[in-house]
């Protein structure tokens, strides 16, 4: 057999093995997923690239891999049927994906969710034709391709008949299950802009982040705060500032941003009040000491000065 044909068969065997392995991995993720007693659907859109073309992107094809909770709802099957009607679509960098959530996740490479706030907000109800009245979570799935690094394998789509306030817990569960199968995903997060004096830094913070995670990101960029007590405040939609002093307050800050559909959370570093009061106290004590020292001397004509209990004669002229 010619070497080139041998390589071709090895390549085809590898591709078949990879597809089968990916299929079984996704199947195990779906099997282990806990719907928490809610009505929902999991389905997988597989990503395949166009060999021999100059197109940058992939085709998303709805696979047979799906899982439904024990609480059945005909709307879930109706939605899956509609997906099959248009189940093979090419997604390029400039493709207008419109309201298609799975396509948007393939294009951006980042997880996203459609929460209760969006579904029931009349001004933001642009997704009504896709999954009318239901909530959605889309999670990009990546695998480590030998010699090519992380590659997009497809999109896991989670549909719930009752839209949730947030799908962070659902994303975390899927993400953890993917990691057990040597797969990964891009976390859900918010863009954070932090201002200190006249400097502004920007970074992504996961929805599941805790206060130490936020402080770590800030001190990585503002080295002068590594040994100081941070006082971070965020700006709400009314431009009021609120301190973030606990994990709960950070969680509330992120949840408020999600519900208001703001893309950026603005934060500010302010000097800790305790440290500030200490500095003010030290400054006052220093001024008081200088004042007492100056009061020890009283001008006494041109010939000299009088100090406490002592006369010091200064030569005139």
Automatic annotation (TrEMBL):
Annotated ranges, domain PB1: 189-272
Signal peptide: none
InterPro entries xrefs: NLP (IPR045012), PB1_dom (IPR000270)
Organism: Artemisia annua
Gene Ontology MF terms in the entry: DNA-binding transcription factor activity
Gene3D superfamilies documented for this protein: Phosphatidylinositol 3-kinase Catalytic Subunit, Chain A, domain 1
Pfam families according to UniProt: PB1
Listed SUPFAM superfamilies: CAD & PB1 domains
Superkingdom of source: Eukaryota
TM region(s), chain numbering: none
Protein name: PB1 domain-containing protein
């Amino acid at each position: 057999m010619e070497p080139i044909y041998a390589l071709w068969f090895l390549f085809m065997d590898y591709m078949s093995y990879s597809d089968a392995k990916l299929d079984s991995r996704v199947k195990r993720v779906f099997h282990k997923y806990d719907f928490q007693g809610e009505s929902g659907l999991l389905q997988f859109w597989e990503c395949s690239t166009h060999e021999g073309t100059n197109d940058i992107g992939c085709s998303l094809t709805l696979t047979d891999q799906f899982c439904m909770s024990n609480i059945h709802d005909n709307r879930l099957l109706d939605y899956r049927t509609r997906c099959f009607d248009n189940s093979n679509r090419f997604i390029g960098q400039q493709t207008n994906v419109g309201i298609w959530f799975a396509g948007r996740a393939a294009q951006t490479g980042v997880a996203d969710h459609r929460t209760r706030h969006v579904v029931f907000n009349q001004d933001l109800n642009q997704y009504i034709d896709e999954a009318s009245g239901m909530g959605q979570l889309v999670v990009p799935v990546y695998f480590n391709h030998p010699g090519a690094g992380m590659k997009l394998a497809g999109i896991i789509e989670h549909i719930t008949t009752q839209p949730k306030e947030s799908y962070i817990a659902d994303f975390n569960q899927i993400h953890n299950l993917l990691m057990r199968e040597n797969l990964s995903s891009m976390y859900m997060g918010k863009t954070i802009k932090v201002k200190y004096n006249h400097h502004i830094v920007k970074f992504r913070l996961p929805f599941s982040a805790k206060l130490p995670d936020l402080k770590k990101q800030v001190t990585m960029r503002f080295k002068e705060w590594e040994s100081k007590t941070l006082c971070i405040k965020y700006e709400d939609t009314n431009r009021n500032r609120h301190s973030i002093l606990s994990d709960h307050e950070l969680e509330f800050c992120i949840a408020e941003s999600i519900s208001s559909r703001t893309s950026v959370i603005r934060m500010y570093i302010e000097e800790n009040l305790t440290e500030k009061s200490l500095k003010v106290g030290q400054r006052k004590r220093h001024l008081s000491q200088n004042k007492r020292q100056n009061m020890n001397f009283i001008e006494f004509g041109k010939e000299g000065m009088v100090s406490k209990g002592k006369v010091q004669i200064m030569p005139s002229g």
